[in-house]
Structures are given as C-alpha cells and as structure tokens.
C-alpha cells in the first residue's frame, strides 16, 4: 500500500512538473548551447556594432520586441513583409514610418544562418536583441529564456488594435496590458523604456496643442518653457516626422529619469503623463515615485516585466517554424 502511495505521489509530482513546463511554454535558458553555441555572442556583437553606429538604434530594437509581443505574441510576426496572403504589420498605424531596426535583424539572421542553418528563430533574436540594446545603454541585463518559433502569419488588424497609442488614457493602457496578461506593475515598469529613443511630432502634437489636455497637465502654468520647446519642434500642422527625445534629461542613457520627468509633468507623450494625472487610486503614482527614487528597483522590475512580456503566447515545439529569412515564411 505504501509503495503504491509513494508511486502515486511521484506520478502527481511528475505531472505537475509537466504542467508547469507547459504553462511556461517550454522556454529555457541556454537553449542554443548545443545547437548553436555562439548564437548569443553573435547577437550581442552585432547589436553593439549597430548601436555604436546609431545610438538611437538601441531604443528601436527594444521597441521591435514590444511591438511584436503585443500583437499575436512573441513570434516575430512584426518582421514579415507583404507576400502572398500576408499583409505586413509594418503597415499598421503604430508601425508605419515609425518602427526601425529591420536591417539590423536581417544582418544578425544572415550571420546566424551561416553559422547554424535553420536553428535560431527570429522571435528569439528579437528577445536577445532587446536585452543587449538595453544593457549597451547602461540599463539592466537579464537572462533571456529561449526556444520560440516563428509565426507563419502576420496580423495587420491586431497591430492596429493591440499596440497602445501615444495618446491612450490610463484606463485604455491598463486594458491593453491586461489583454496580454500584464498587470499594473508591468505597465509602469515597461513604460520606463521611454527613457530611451525619440518620438515623431505626430505622436505628441495632441499633448502640446490640446487646450483641455494642457490645463489638465499644467493648471499652474509651470511648464510653459517645456511646451514651447516642443512646439518649436512640432508645429500645429506639418512636420509630422520631426522627432523629439522621449527623455530630454538623458536621452541616450537607460536610467530612471523617465519617472522623474513625468512626476514633473514633462513626459513627451500623453500616454506617459496619464500614469500620474489619471491615477485616482494612487497605486501607480506610488510605483512611479519608487522608480524615480530608486534606479536599481526600476531596473529589477523592468527586467522581470520584459521577461514576462517575452513569454506572451510564444510558439514552441511543433508550432510555427524557424524562418530562414525573417521577412518571409519558408517556401
């Protein structure tokens, strides 16, 4: 009887372990240790070259991972070009004339295909690239769980629907993140990625010209100089593609200044400032203050949230494929 009981307990433990693996979708550390041992080194070196050539590229590569994961999951669907029945996500409103870094991914993929044909997925490349880009700009470095497969399709409609808009309300942002299984702490931590990069005039014009929004953000008229500076870059019409840094304090460094900025009403995007202006419960403002006061806490939370985001609806095992060219499904 005792032997049977011990066997049943062991069986339950095994089944639970299998269930946990299934829940984590079978992503593992050192996934390419045997099949492509230099994979992570190849990615890191090429990201370093790209960012040395163009420091802004760090933010662009991080953003690619975000815009990929928020549509159908982290499956490299954002990299697909128009072909056959596929309508590219690159043409969606949040991405068109905005997403950058595709050639960097192409170059990395080409080198990996030379070294280890049909082994390293484009989705895993995006996850590794995001980590390396952040680390190169002074941010945290985290361990990337790997083993994703690449999608066989894109979702143009999904890209228009699920990627948060720069003028989103706080309620909409929370709903967007909840849709992906991400909570308020993830929302605040991942918003901190706006410590890097630049945004187009089209993305922040409403924030600086809408009178109602202006009064809401700045009822004491304290930030007129900041607003005038933005208006000099972005007129009320025209110059849609003129750009301004998301973080005017330290635009090329990954740090916690984003949170200091929004506490002072100096977030570039409307969706930045609502973290403070529309938080009636006070929970989000507490997180903003915590991250503004403690950079290490922000770094730790950001790394945890990126890893969590990188696990959204991943394809593993027999799902999807390893694309030979990140822009097209395999023939």
Automatic annotation (TrEMBL):
Reactions the enzyme catalyzes: 2 a phenolic donor + H2O2 = 2 a phenolic radical donor + 2 H2O
Cysteine disulfide links: 36-116, 69-74, 122-326, 201-234
E.C. no: 1.11.1.7
Enzyme class label: oxidoreductase
Annotated site, Transition state stabilizer, chain positions: 63
GO cellular component: extracellular region
Keyword field: Calcium, Disulfide bond, Glycoprotein, Heme, Hydrogen peroxide, Iron, Metal-binding, Oxidoreductase, Peroxidase, Secreted, Signal
Segments forming domain Plant heme peroxidase family profile: 26-330
Keyword Disulfide bond listed: yes
Active site: 67 (proton acceptor)
Residues that, per the record, bind Ca(2+) 2: 195, 247, 250, 255
Name of the molecule in the record: Peroxidase
